[in-house]
Write a structure and sequence with these properties.
Layout lengths: L7 E4 L2 H11 L11 E7 L2 E9 L4 H5 L10 E9 L7 H16 L5 E7 L7 H5 L3 E7 L3 E4 L5 E3 H6 L8 E3 L3 E8 L14 H5 L4 E2 L2 E2 L2 H4 L2
Parallel strand pairs: 4-5
Antiparallel strand pairs: 1-2, 2-3, 3-4, 5-10, 6-10, 7-8, 7-9, 11-12
């Protein structure tokens, strides 16, 4: 794992975390309801942030686990690391953050996260970190301005009435959902998908570029 073993992960204030996410996350945006922020430090400097919070669609997400309570889970809704961090940093930072959650918030039984296979990636790091793939579907919520390159979600798009502008078009892509069971006795209520399903649906993506799982192994 090399220098990734030297990374220190600890809780940091939301203000510091949000500033980092806005600068280094591909979306340039934070999730407003993020409540728990971990900073990833190497050589005494902040080089990564993992932000957790309640699921935006909490009622719907609860159904993914049998007999799930309202406060039984948390969502990893932002992960942003800069290029200073070495290989394997993502999996180490996720692993440490999960250990800290398990120790300090024992009521949290599982973690939900989504991977944006429309603009970013198909969740390589989640698969490497022991998450289960539970959902793979077409993402129809993103719009692109073909002239400016600007992007926005459905809600913002319709709210601003930009649908009258013919320069906007739907972006084709996928959304993937992953679950990590902290409490291994929890039962996932939906089918756990094999990772090969990603290639079957042509949903492979890494750093915004289409790619197959096989190509990544070459």
């Amino acid at each position: 794992m090399g220098r990734a073993k030297e990374i220190i992960v600890k809780v940091i204030p939301s203000k510091i975390a949000n500033e980092f996410v806005k600068k280094h996350h591909y979306s340039g945006k934070v999730v407003p309801n993020s409540q728990l922020h971990f900073g990833c430090f190497l050589d005494d400097k902040l080089h990564g942030v993992l932000s957790y919070g309640p699921s935006i669609n909490k009622k719907g997400s609860m159904n993914l686990i049998k007999d799930c309570g309202w406060s039984d889970f948390i969502e990893l809704n932002r992960m942003a690391l800069d290029d200073y961090l070495p290989k394997y940093s993502e999996s180490r930072c996720i692993a440490i953050s999960i250990k800290l959650i398990k120790k300090n918030a024992p009521h949290i039984k599982w973690i939900l996260s989504f991977s944006d296979g429309t603009q970013c990636g198909d969740g390589t790091i989640y698969r490497a970190s022991g998450f289960n793939l539970v959902q793979l579907k077409k993402n129809t919520s993103m719009w692109l301005n073909i002239n400016t390159g600007a992007k926005m979600q459905d809600m913002q798009f319709y709210h601003t009435m930009t649908k009258k502008d013919n320069n906007w078009q739907k972006i084709e892509g996928n959304m993937l959902a992953y679950i990590y069971l902290i409490d291994k006795t929890c039962k996932i209520t939906v089918p756990i998908l094999p990772f090969s399903k990603i290639d079957e649906m042509g949903a492979g993506m890494y750093k915004g570029k289409k790619i197959t799982l096989a190509e990544r192994k070459e």
